[in-house]
Design brief:
The complex is a heterodimer of chains A (134) and B (434). With 134 residues, chain A is α+β, with helices and mostly antiparallel strands. Helix content of chain A is 19%, strand content 31%. The longest helix of chain A has 9 residues, at 13-21. Chain B has 18 helices and 19 strands. Chain B has helices at 36-44, 62-75, 89-102, 115-124, 131-137, 148-151, 155-160, 202-213, 220-227, 231-243, 253-256, 262-275, 292-303, 325-330, 344-347, 350-358, 370-373, 413-428, and strands at residues 2-7, 19-24, 27-32, 53-55, 58-59, 79-83, 105-108, 140-144, 176-181, 193-196, 246-251, 280-285, 309-310, 317-318, 336-340, 361-365, 377-380, 391-393, 399-401. In chain B, the strands form 4 sheets. Chain B has a 9-stranded mixed sheet with strand order 5-4-17-16-15-6-7-13-14. In chain B, strands 10-9-8-11-12 form a 5-stranded parallel sheet. Classes of the chains: A alpha+beta (134), B alpha/beta (434).
Amino acid sequence: MAEPFVLIPGRTSRQGCGISAGKFSAEYLDETSVVQLASTDMKRLGLTSGDVVKLSSADGQVELAVRAATGDELPPGVLFIAYGDLSSRLMGADTHGSGMPTSKGLDVMLEVVTRSPPGQAGSTPRGTKGAPPG
Amino acid sequence: MKIVEDATCTFCGCVCDDITLKVENQRIVEANKACVLGKAWFLNHQIEDRPSCLIDGKPAPLDEGYERAASILCEAKYPIIYGLSDSPCEAQRVAVSLADWIGANVDSTTSVCHGPSGMALQGVGEVTCTLGEVANRADLVMFWGSNPAESHPRHFTRYSLMPKGMFVPNGRKDRTCVVVDVRRTKSVKAADLFFQIPPRKDFEAIWCLRALAADVALDADQVERDTGIPLARWQDLMQRMKSARFGVIFFGMGLTMTRGKHCNTEALLALVRDMNAHTRFVVKPNRGHGNVTGADNVVTWRTGYPFGVNLARGYPRFNPGEYTTSDTLARGEADAALIVSADPMSNLAQAARAHLASIPYVALDPKETPTTRAAAVAFTVAAYGIQTGGTVYRLDDVPIALRPALDSPHPSDQTVLEGIERCVRQRKGIGEFA
């Protein structure tokens, strides 16, 4: 069953280094195609790193791998993705007269797509696919 | 081997100009003093083994590229020019000229980073200073919706927290650092105080501080309900802000990209203005790209406005939401584009990307990106600050010269834009001015 979350795309050092390595480099693609959850949310949803979830906003949907946020970096109910192609697919085009699409604090629904069997860690985190708004 | 002293890093708005580069066989092999982002910037921008010009994906001479680009831009009814934030000021200047000749929109990536800050600045004003003043004077340093530990890694050590300055001789010991954010980011480790507010509650939190600055009585329950922080903690922070000798708030896209946008930044700029009734207080946006601040400056010198400028009527008009790139693309209005060192095919909303993919456009970039791949004409350009010189503006509006370390077989942004401009002027019968 899908659950509501607030998504915050943002910069990370690895994403920044990935830009210099190239937008098609493994470093950039890996970093921008993983969603981070609070460890409490990971535990509650029975998720381990590498499991795949679907995020849907009013403007698009993507499937990507999950990873637990470091320590208590994220409060429960908040997701984080390094800026990139997938995070932008969830963003609406309406700028409300400002030129700036609402790019942080997005309302999304999270649905688990694949979950590792109990006691077995998921595969290496790596994003899967994005879809334009349907 | 060649050593380049005091090279300038153009990855982020810190624009650190104290980097020592070691060059061997036309490759940068060391970038001393650079942060993790700077090292990745210098070591990954070697000479690209790609054609300098591709037309419809096929290698072509530069002159043919200039002609085709001019043809695309001159035949359009609503051309747009976008990007500019990773180009030196000299190239930005040519891009604005080009926009003027063809009656285009000219817009930088400011519109999707600190554009709302620019709007707020026009509405409220900005109490500002240079980073040198921060290094020498600031004893209360706040970061709001900004995570420099990851986005501007030398911010703390070079400018804001660690330097031993004229009025803060003990450096970090003489300063108090406050972070306000939704996430407990890596920057929080550097803070003395952390205020973790719920998502989309920045405006309420800033307004609470404005009320406290004006000694307005507040309902403690409502404050905690609206900001997630007890009133007593906000009161303590305000006391510290009032008793600081020199306070500064650096803010990031946590404010500008979140619902409220320019209202959030207007609130923050107004708070800082209010604080000057009590002590010296300043505010600065932590700008991202290496010369996004230069783009604001150059576009303002030339048109009177910083971004989102329309030149179709022969005089500049400014209207964010109407002339900004995300909007002109998503609404399907633009019918040709010139993208200068930016990657809208990765970073804009899907509707904007889909429209850009459906119109002819020209792209300049040192690297191959999703945007250059889908361009009708793609130019591989020399990386600024590494393979070509010029001037950039640091995030505090201080201009800094570039000291390139390598020669490049590829043209600079400026050379390409001047080539396109020359062809545009020929097509329009515009002669050279003395």
